[in-house]
Amino acid sequence: MCLYHCELLEARLTLKRPEVIVIGAGTAGCVTAKRCAELGLKTMLLDRKPEPEIGKKVCGDEISKSHFEFTGIKPPHGKEISSEVKGADVYPPNMSNELQVRGWDEFDGWTIDRPRFGQRLLQRAVQVGVVFKPEVHVVGPILLQERVAGVVYLDRHTDEKMAISCKLVVDASGFAGVIRKKLDDPLVERDIAKEDIALCYREILDLKNPMAEPEVARIYLGGDAAPQGYAWVFPKGPKTINAGVGITGGKGKASPKSYFEIFKKQIPLLHGARVLESGGGAVPIRRPMKSLVTDGVAFVGDAAWQVNPIHGGGIGAGMRAGIILGEVAKQAIARRDLSARGLWGYNTLYLRGFGRRLASLEVFKRLLQAVSDEDMNYGFEKRLLEANDLMAANRGDGLSIGMRNKIGRVKRGASRVKLLLKLRKAAGLMKKVDRHYAQYPGTPDGLENWTRGINKIMESARFSS
Ligand SMILES: Cc1cc2nc3c(=O)[nH]c(=O)nc-3n(C[C@H](O)[C@H](O)[C@H](O)COP(=O)(O)OP(=O)(O)OC[C@H]3O[C@@H](n4cnc5c(N)ncnc54)[C@H](O)[C@@H]3O)c2cc1C
């Protein structure tokens, strides 16, 4: 707390006082800022990047249609679309017996031109009145009487430390979590465990030959190229792809780029391809923060760990949150209650809804990480999980293995009883998580008890390898 009082004393307080300051003009920040402004709130959006860089992000570029249906945001169109995505082939480590998933509403959509899409979101926000300030590096919150009351930032043009106060700060700074990491508050989970981070490397590649099914995404689980992680090949055009690997951290592994080199050698489609663009990044792959708000501040997007723990998709999860947060901010400001209690509606609406789905997928992620390559190959060969199970799990319907299916699977999996037991345990825990999130408390008072419950479920979600 003292640190920011001192920083504040050094900083020059600007006179412009917006009601809402959103830090970060990524997809989550732009959507939140736009929603706040169109609901009549005076909103300022800050980003450390210059304006033309907004939208540039190392990413798999895939987004499903379902997020646009939920948010009402205009879907990608024209040059924003790189390719349609219709279905996915999911491969086990030995690359045979792949699951062909088709008609997967929650995944099918597009790969997008990220910079164009990001620029559109920014321009729409500015058009409804958001004041955008590029090249502004936020260094932390202003804290007054234990609540966040604004931000301290470095103005890159003048190198001056400045401070702006506001009613609500929104941390949409992505993986950096620039405000989250500076708070010492019982409601805020400040740090993320290494095993909950996927370190990624990806390349945009121009292929020598066109792909066989140019609209199908390919996902590769485990193996030498992606131990306890995944690799992907997403279509960007008939001869262009976005390919990468995501490796979960914490186990003294090599760099994701070195795994990608192994992957490139394994996949004949990638041989001789020309690299158009490359880069790395980190994604949080765990359930969202237990509370997405505390006094004077809300968290959205990667800063709030709103990402699908299985495939690392976070564009849609953050956009959904931004729409909800805008509505809650409007009501809280009208009631003049920007305390955690006043902002709590964002928690209940998001965590009992989409967040609940993300949380149960953390159990599924842990299961995938604990299954050996050999067992995974066996499971794919014997179809212990079908395409429908994958789709149901991703929808948030758990691993609902019906009675008829169960008998068939028990027969097919007879020689791998341990694997079947793991599957059964994961199915049960996913249901438990789902039920627990449905009971997310209506006020901060119930959070401690609720957190004890979810921690207990997650502690039992350990699967020996
Ligand atoms: C390799 C890779 C592949 C991925 N593939 C997919 C995919 O195919 N589909 C999908 O849906 N998701 C994917 N994701 C995840 C997805 O990219 C993120 O979930 C999403 O972009 C998060 O959006 P955001 O707005 O929360 O954060 P970001 O897009 O990271 O935006 C944060 C913004 O905050 C700004 N900022 C940070 N710190 C400060 C500061 N101190 N001061 C001012 N500004 C600051 C940054 O400049 C940035 O503009 C992938 C991620 C990676 C790394």
Distinct small molecules bound, one entry per kind: flavin-adenine dinucleotide
Biggest sheet, in brief? 7 strands, mixed
In round numbers, the mean pLDDT is: 91
Counting H and I runs of at least 4 residues, what is the number of helices?
13
CATH superfamily of the largest domain: FAD/NAD(P)-binding domain
Q: In terms of per-residue confidence, which ranges show pLDDT below 50 for 5 or more consecutive residues?
A: none
How would you summarize the topology of this molecule?
Layout: H1 2-10, E1 12-13, E2 20-23, H2 27-38, E3 43-46, E4 62-64, H3 65-71, E5 81-85, E6 88-91, E7 99-101, E8 109-112, H4 114-127, E9 131-133, E10 136-144, E11 147-155, E12 160-165, E13 168-171, E14 197-206, E15 217-222, E16 226-235, E17 240-248, H5 256-266, E18 274-284, E19 293-294, E20 297-299, H6 315-334, H7 340-351, H8 354-370, H9 373-381, H10 387-395, H11 403-412, H12 417-438, H13 447-460
Parallel strand pairs: 1-12, 2-3, 2-13, 3-9, 6-15, 13-20
Antiparallel strand pairs: 4-8, 5-8, 6-7, 10-11, 11-12, 14-17, 14-18, 15-16, 16-17, 19-20
Helix pairs in contact: 2-4, 2-6, 3-6, 6-7, 8-12, 12-13
The site of flavin-adenine dinucleotide has 40 residues, from helix 2, strand 4, strand 10, strand 14 and strand 18.
Summarize the structure.
Helix content is 36%, strand content 24%. The protein has helices at 2-10, 27-38, 65-71, 114-127, 256-266, 315-334, 340-351, 354-370, 373-381, 387-395, 403-412, 417-438, 447-460, and strands spanning 12-13, 20-23, 43-46, 62-64, 81-85, 88-91, 99-101, 109-112, 131-133, 136-144, 147-155, 160-165, 168-171, 197-206, 217-222, 226-235, 240-248, 274-284, 293-294, 297-299. It binds flavin-adenine dinucleotide.
